[in-house]
Amino acid sequence: MPEITLSSPDGEFSAYLTGDTGPGIVLAQEIFGVNDVMRETADQFAKQGYKVICPDLFWRQEPGIQITDKTEKDWEKAFSLYQGFDEDKGIEDLKLALNFLRDQGCKKVGSVGYCLGGKLSYLMATRSNADCNVSYYGVGIDAALSEADNIKNPLILHIAEEDGFVDKAAQEKIKQSLTSNHITIHSYTGVDHAFARIEGINFDEKAAQSANERTSTFFEEHLK
Q: Which residue ranges make up each domain of the chain?
């Protein structure tokens, strides 16, 4: 499927769009941009019967970023982009993508995000009318728990217990704060951040399969 262009008050930006029909999913990128991993992830959701859009959230800094977790140079680039990222603007971009899918005829639209996108999917739960949201190892959620009362629709958080970017104290704070009956938290023992990243350095097949099956069931229940 093609790259498309979305328009915001700040300018135009690209998004990867895949899937023909069905409910919608907004996929929030990691800190490595809309790279092969994000595109493959989007394609996998499309194969499950969803129309999926993955917008370029770094476009205000540098459009078209596609790097990996394989080299120190790429990590340096990714962290530089992450540090310069405007989270509030990113959420506005994701909401534009959500509205685009609804305009395309998707009656229900959810969000899912990984890493940086995991935090943004949590914020989509607090700031948007997405029908449901899934966060994979979001970084910084513990600093945004004051928004939790705004969550009205189902949310899943997948937490890596050995996450190098989210320490045990932060994980516990999240678990103690997010106790609503429409919020589900799954913790995965013995795995590090990005355990579900396809071919990533911390990929764990067992944990990834478990998390992905839970996500698939969740989307089936709340979007189809």
A: 3-223
